[in-house]
Amino acid sequence: MTMLMTEEDRPNAVVSIVGMGGIGKTTLARKVYNHVEVRHHFDCLAWVYISQQCKPREVVLSVLMEVLSPSKDERELIQKLDENELWKSLFDALKEKRYLVVLDDIWRSEDWDILKPALPRGRKGSKILFTTRNRNVALHADPCNTPVELSPLTDDESWILLSRRAFPLNKTDSHIRSEEFEKLGREMVKKCGGLPLAIIVLGSLLARKQSLDDWETVHRNFFHGHLKGLQQLDHQYGAVNRILVLSYNDMPYHLKPCFLYLAHYPEDWEISKKELIRLWIAEGFISPLSGSEEILMEDVGEQFLEELIDRSLVQVWRRDYTGTKVKKCRIHDLLRNLCVGKAEEENFLKFIQPSLIENSGNSLDVTLVTSMPRRLAIHPGKRYVHLKGEHPQLRSLLLIQEEVFINFHISNFKNFKLLRVLKLAWNVRKWHVSGEIGNLRHLRYLRLKCIGEMILPGAIGKLKNLHTLYFQCFSRIVVPNVVFKLERLRQFVIKGDGYPWTKSGFPWWQSFSSKNIETLKYMSVDKKLIENNEALRLSHIQCLGIIFKSSEDVKSILLLMIKLDCLRSLSMNLPLEKSSSFSYLDLEPLLQFGHLSKLKLVGHLKEDPHQSHHVLKFLPQNIVKLTLQCSTMTQDPMEVLENLPCLTILNLSSFAYEGRKLICSANGFRQLESFHLNKTTNLEEWEIQEGAMPRLRRLSLSLNFKLERLPEGLRYITTLQKLILRAMPSSLTRRIEVIGEKGGEDFYKVRHIPSIQISDRIADLLIHEAVFLKDVKDQVESLTAELKRMQYFLKDADRKLEQDARFQNRVSEIRDLAYDAEDVIDSFIFKAAHQRGFHGIVKRFTSIFTKPFHLHKIGVQVKAIQTRLEKISENLPAFKIPGDGKASSSIFKVQQRLRRTYSHVEEEDVVSLEVSTKD
């Protein structure tokens, strides 16, 4: 910590932690990174994993995301940046901050040389923290700082750590005091080489052995047994690998394929628990418990994962909103090496990593032979991958997807007849999924994603064994009604237009043949759902996302759903129009959803006109996570929300609240741990009374443009660990900033918070861009008038060309300028018309940050033409056309010409070039 907090004033000051794999480098770095003093010392912090296959773009992108904490829409903008823009963006984001960036598990000096230009000097005291196995990499990065080299644990330290793991606290101390147990334990732990990872894995193995005979068996196998598979592993870790293999061999049969399946994922990958368990089920690794219903298979999968965690073979990386269940998990590099080695040895799995295959150009043809494994994982890369040939043995084909799409193509689906799992993404504007997919009769898991329109064939109805259907694209999705007939369907998710709350929901108007559906979203519903009582047939549904077509159906459909006792998560997209007939009374049935723990409401909540009742009064009391979006409430929601006894996570976003003041009362929000407040239009004052939110750990505020001060009561919330301020007024952020050794006037409110992130660069850029684009229309109108002036001038100048050579040159310049202006005006009409109206573009840009690059380019061109025109006018006084009233009529003529040119464009889509008098 002392090395990190020393205020050196030099570029790229690096502190390195060096040691062999499993010795605890990451654990130590994480402990320092999360220390209160460290978080107070630095303005911003970021952590990123490097691994052997360093991908510089992904590394820089990850750091930038952590530094800026962007919204989902802003993330999409950042991901479109090219490498030069990305490096510069990170450089600019850090150059005025005292920052700490952790590069965990960096292997090569060359990787650091590529990343270094993105990391500026920053404010005095900025640091980069390395963890690496290679001392030379550390010295190459910073010869001035001696690396911190971790030593293995001593024999006594190793035994203490083993004892803690092998003898749980709820057991008596008799085992520890037994000389026989200690003798065997010390002999085995000595072979761990002092590596904490190996000791913990061995301890977890021994914790399951209750008798001395069991310990002797482990001891015997460890020292004298033939452990198959060691030859596949790194000889540097010989004794350690024996422990890891021994732990693998000790696994019950049903756990081994679940563990080997983790080899699908790249190093340091954050693995989704939900997806992993569904893949296990699709592969047939999980069967219903004896005498139980099929619906319990996901619960069995949870048990399997917990057992792998208990054995220290899998690390919990992130918990879900309840704080108890796993959301993301990871596997240590050494354990992954074991996993990969075993998977290859047993012909369980093969990888394709296009980025590591040399001399394959921009494309890579892959043909598997019959001896190839039954599972294929394709890791991220920029090359086009074409899978060819017949593959009668292949059971699983997974495209491990990152933020960017991979070009991937299968030559013929009928060559994969035994396939059970198929996960693909395709970088195309329109994907007509081949009807040959119907040949995959054994398919249980199908997940498809593309950037454009996706059209699915009716042949999907032949896939009678499907458990999971997941479709996502950023345009329209066409799904045939045959999905209703899939008898074994358990998970059906469809996301279109990039946002689930658009009108892209799948029409739910008839019965599903499957009665074991657990997840269903996003479905468009209306009164037909009521007429056939379809919702009542899904008695096992746990997660439901619905989009209401009409506000008139809300209450009746909710009344129908009260009887869904298994429902835990509900997302409802209400009609967005404020003029709809929806009333707060329509939400009354929610009060009877006693089992619901997660609720999301999107759309306008029509309040009681007399304000005698709050629109949220009918929220179920057991809600743990609540999201309100586009609600446009004017009554303070806190008076209801703060009394929900179980509420742990609260998100108010995208104009959920339009009032002027929020009040959090003393003793309110007793369980709240995370609060996100985003996009309020009128919020000016927020009062937090002492005693409110006593368990709050994370607070995020963004795009609340009128909130100029943080609440006084924030200083009473001593549990707060992280404060994120994104695109907030500069008057607010200035009051808490520390300049030199002096904090702003409101710094006392936040000085106790370990981590404070302030990022406004993206918002500033987008606001500036929105203002710029709004001016484009006016600029084009002005340019049209200037074009007519130029045309008048050129017509008059024809007879003067003989008089003055200088005049001739100016006339030539004006003619070129007139041509350029004409091109720009044509481009504006064409682009704006194709975007369904200019005002629509600006509205979408400012609300969801869609990128109208063409308009920006036009704006830049207009400004350039105007600058050139000003210079010509200064040097050529003769270039003056009196304002004779003809300009407006000339605009009309230009419009007529443009309409003739673009006759295919609808009249309502054409942006008028006449200056509006209403503005």
Automatic annotation (TrEMBL):
GO molecular function: ADP binding
GO biological process: defense response to other organism
Domain NB-ARC: 4-168
Nucleotide-binding keyword on record: yes
Domain Disease resistance R13L4/SHOC-2-like LRR, first and last residues per copy: 393-725
UniProt keyword RNA-binding present: no
Coiled-coil region(s): none
Domain Disease resistance N-terminal: 760-839
Domain Disease resistance protein winged helix: 265-338
PANTHER family: DISEASE RESISTANCE PROTEIN RP, DISEASE RESISTANCE RPP8-LIKE PROTEIN 3-RELATED
Name of the molecule in the record: NB-ARC domain-containing protein
